[in-house]
Amino acid sequence: MNNRGMMVVFSAPSGCGKDTVFKRLCEKRNDVVKSVSATTRKQRADEIDGVNYFFISKEQFEYLIENNGLIEYTCYNGCYYGTPTEGVHEAIQMGKICFLIIEIEGAQNVMELFPECVSIFLLPPSIEVLEKRLRGRGTDSEEEIRNRMEIAYKEMSYKDIYQYNVINDDLEVCVDEIDKILCEELKKHNA
Question: pTM here?
Answer without folding.
Answer: 0.84
